[in-house]
Design brief:
heterodimer, A: about 170 residues, alpha+beta, Ubiquitin-like (UB roll), DNA polymerase, domain 1, 2 domains, five-stranded mixed beta sheet, globular, B: about 425 residues, mainly alpha, Cytochrome Bc1 Complex, Chain D, domain 2, 3 domains, two-stranded antiparallel ribbon, disordered C terminus
Chain lengths: ~170, ~425
C-alpha cells in the first residue's frame, strides 16, 4: 500500500508501485481532470502539481510520491466555487475541445504561485510543455493574464479560501 | 656590500623581466575606421561569411538569451569564471563597427582586439588562427553587414589576477600555436576540408579536447573528451567508449539531423551547434564527418552489460517513468530515438549527460516543439536521480560503475536551477 496525499487528503492506494500517477488518479481515485494525451510526457494534458511544481503524471510512478503534496485541477476549486485560474479560463472561453485545458490550468497555477505578475514571455515559457491542437492559444494567454489579476485581488483570494459566494 | 650587489642584481633582473614581459604583452592599437557601407562588400562574400558564421556558431556565444543576434552578453561559464560574449555587430560604440579588416583578422588569428587588448581564450582564437585569410574576409563582410546594435556586454566575472589581460600574453606564449591550416598532401581533399573546418572555424576541440589547469587544450590528447557548460563532451578519438562505434555515416547523420539512432541525440551545448549547422551545405558536413571518423580508430566490441540486482528500487522508477518510451513493445509501440543499450551517453566515462537529460529533459535539436522527453527535476529526489543513473549504467553498459554520481547530481541541480518552487524540499528528499 502506498499513501498518496491528493488535494490535501490522504489516500491508501493498492497498486503496483511502478504505476504512473495518472492511472491511479483516474482509475482508482476517480479524479478525471488530468487527461491521458500521449502517455509519453510530451503533451502536458496529464499535468498535476507535486509540491507546487507541474509534473507529467503519465510518467511519474507512484513509488516516488509518498509524502509529496499532489494537487490536481479538482483541488483548484469546485463547480460551484471555481478557483481564480478555473474562473479565468471559463470567462475567457479558453477551451475549444477542452482536453488539454486541465494541463494548461496546472501550468498556469504553478506559474502564478511563483510569479504573480508574469510577462507574456514568462507565460509562454511556462506553458511551453502543454500542447493544444484546437488552437486556442491566444485565449489561453488571456485567461492566464486574467487569472493573475484575480489572484491579486482580495476578492479572488478570499473566495478560494473560504468558499464565499462571489456573485 | 655583497648583499647590496645581489639585491641590485635581482632588482635589475626584475625590471628587465617586467620590461621584457611588457614588451611581449604590448600590442599596438589599430586605427579606427568609419563603419563601411554594405555596398563595400560583394554579396557572394557576405554569403560565404554567413555559411562560415553558422559553422562557427558565432551567434551562440555572441547573443544573450532573448537578445539581438551578435549583440553579445551571453554568459560563458568557464572553470575560471564567467566571460560574456562581446558585441560583434557593426555598432561603432559598443560593437566592432570601427574595426578594419586587418583588426578583425588579427583578433581571429592572434586574440587581440582593435585597441590592442589581449582577448580571453573563451573566444577560441587558438582554433580560429587556422582560418584562411579569404575566410576571415568573408566573416568580416558578413558581420559588418549585420544590423548594428548598441549593447554593452556585462563585465567579465573573473577572480584576481585574471582580469589583468597582459597575463594572457604569457598564456599565448605557452599555448597558442599561431598560423593558418596547412593541407596534408597525403590525405584526400575531403579529409583536408573537414580538418580545416573542424580544427578552425567549427572549433570542435574547444569542448571535445580536455584542458589543462591553465585552461589550454591538451594537444597530445586531442578529442579525448572534454566538457562544456556542465556537460561532458564525449571523446571523438579512439578513447570513445560508444557501444556502437561511430563512423562517417553516423557522424554525418548526427551533425546533419541531430540524431544518430545507434548513438545519440544532440542535447545540451551540442543542440545549438546542430541548429547552426542546419544551414551549412552537405559537403561541408560530410567532410567534417570524414575527418572526425578517421580519428576514431578501430572498432572494438563493447563489454557486455552487467546484471542488475533484484529488488532494486530504481528498477521500479525505471518501469514507471522510463520504460514506456525506452522499452520496445510499450502500449503505444513508440520507439525512443536511441536504444539505451547503444547510447553513447550511458557508456561514456562521465555520468553528467545522463543526469542532465533526466533532470532537464531533452528537446528536439531545433528546440521548436515541446520536449521530446520531459525533465524529471520536480519528480525525483537527488537520491532517486543517483540510483536511477547508477541503474542505467549497470543495466545498459558493461563499463565500470560511475563514481561520485551524487556529487554530480547535486552540482547539476544547483547549476541549472532545475528545482523549481519546491527545490529545497525536493533536494533534501523530504
Amino acid at each position: 500500500m502506498i499513501t498518496l496525499s491528493v488535494n490535501g487528503r490522504d489516500h491508501q492506494v493498492d497498486a503496483d508501485p511502478a504505476t504512473p500517477l495518472l492511472y491511479v488518479l483516474r482509475d482508482d481515485l476517480e479524479m478525471n481532470a488530468a487527461k491521458f494525451g500521449c502517455g509519453l510526457g510530451q503533451c502536458g494534458s496529464c499535468m498535476v502539481l507535486v509540491d507546487g511544481a507541474p509534473v507529467v503524471s503519465c510518467v511519474t510512478p507512484i513509488v516516488v510520491l509518498e509524502g509529496r503534496a499532489i494537487r490536481t485541477v479538482e483541488g483548484l476549486g469546485t463547480v460551484d466555487d471555481p478557483g481564480p485560474v478555473q474562473r479565468a479560463f471559463m470567462e475567457e472561453q479558453a477551451a475549444q475541445c477542452g482536453y488539454c485545458i486541465p494541463g494548461f490550468m496546472i501550468s498556469a497555477q504553478a506559474l502564478l504561485e511563483r510569479t504573480p505578475s508574469p510577462s507574456d514571455a514568462e507565460i509562454r515559457d511556462a506553458l511551453k510543455p502543454n500542447l493544444c491542437r484546437c488552437g486556442t492559444h491566444m485565449r489561453i494567454m488571456k485567461a492566464v493574464r486574467r487569472a493573475a489579476g484575480f489572484m491579486q485581488t482580495a476578492d479572488a483570494g478570499a473566495t478560494t479560501s473560504n468558499g464565499e459566494d462571489r456573485r | 656590500m655583497r648583499t647590496t650587489r645581489i639585491l641590485g642584481g635581482l632588482l635589475l633582473l626584475a625590471v628587465v623581466g617586467a620590461g621584457g614581459f611588457a614588451a611581449l604583452a604590448w600590442r599596438s592599437e589599430l586605427d579606427p575606421i568609419k563603419p563601411p557601407e554594405r555596398s563595400a562588400f560583394p554579396p557572394e562574400r557576405i554569403a560565404q561569411g554567413a555559411k562560415l558564421a553558422s559553422l562557427g556558431y558565432c551567434a551562440q556565444c555572441h547573443t544573450a538569451a532573448g537578445g539581438k543576434p551578435f549583440a553579445g552578453g551571453y554568459p560563458l561559464k568557464t572553470p575560471f569564471g564567467t566571460i560574456y560574449g562581446t558585441n560583434i555587430t557593426p555598432d561603432p560604440e559598443t560593437g566592432i563597427g570601427t574595426w578594419s579588416e586587418e583588426a578583425f583578422a588579427r583578433s581571429m588569428g592572434e586574440g587581440v582586439d582593435r585597441e590592442g587588448h589581449h582577448l580571453y581564450p573563451g573566444f577560441p582564437y587558438d582554433h580560429f588562427t587556422r582560418i584562411s585569410a579569404d575566410d576571415n574576409r568573408a566573416l568580416y563582410a558578413y558581420l559588418m553587414t549585420r544590423e548594428p546594435v548598441r549593447a554593452e556586454a556585462p563585465a567579465n566575472e573573473l577572480p584576481w589576477p585574471l582580469q589583468f589581460r597582459p597575463l594572457l600574453a604569457g598564456w599565448k606564449l605557452l599555448f597558442l600555436d599561431q598560423g593558418a591550416f596547412k593541407d596534408d598532401p597525403a590525405r584526400s581533399a575531403e579529409w583536408n576540408r573537414g580538418a580545416y573546418l573542424a580544427e578552425g572555424v567549427a572549433h570542435c576541440g574547444a569542448c571535445h579536447t580536455p584542458r589543462n589547469l591553465l585552461g589550454a587544450r591538451e594537444t597530445d590528447r586531442k578529442f579525448a573528451g572534454g566538457e562544456s557548460e556542465g556537460w561532458h563532451a564525449p571523446a571523438l578519438n579512439e578513447a570513445s567508449t560508444a557501444p556502437v562505434p561511430w563512423d562517417q555515416d553516423s557522424l554525418y547523420a548526427y551533425l546533419r539531423k541531430g540524431v544518430s539512432e545507434d548513438h545519440a541525440l544532440a542535447a545540451g551545448p551540442m543542440a545549438p551547434v546542430i541548429r547552426n549547422l542546419s544551414s551549412v551545405p552537405d559537403e561541408d558536413i560530410r567532410a567534417m564527418a570524414t575527418y572526425i571518423a578517421d580519428g576514431m580508430g578501430e572498432r572494438r566490441p563493447a563489454p557486455p552489460a552487467g546484471a542488475v540486482p533484484a529488488g532494486n528500487g530504481a528498477a521500479t522508477v525505471y518501469a514507471g517513468a522510463c520504460a514506456t518510451c525506452h522499452e520496445p513493445g510499450g502500449p503505444l509501440q513508440f520507439a525512443a530515438p536511441v536504444d539505451l543499450a547503444k547510447a553513447t551517453s550511458i557508456a561514456q566515462p562521465d555520468p553528467r549527460n545522463v543526469i542532465q537529460a533526466i533532470m532537464g529533459g531533452v528537446m528536439t535539436p531545433d528546440a521548436a516543439a515541446a520536449p521530446l522527453m520531459p525533465g524529471f527535476a520536480h519528480i525525483l529526489t537527488d537520491k532517486q536521480f543517483a540510483e536511477l543513473t547508477a541503474y542505467l549504467r549497470t543495466r545498459f553498459s558493461g563499463q565500470p560503475a560511475w563514481t561520485d554520481i551524487e556529487g554530480h547530481v547535486a552540482r547539476i541541480r544547483s547549476e541549472t536551477g532545475s528545482a523549481g518552487g519546491s527545490s529545497t524540499r525536493i533536494a533534501k528528499g523530504e
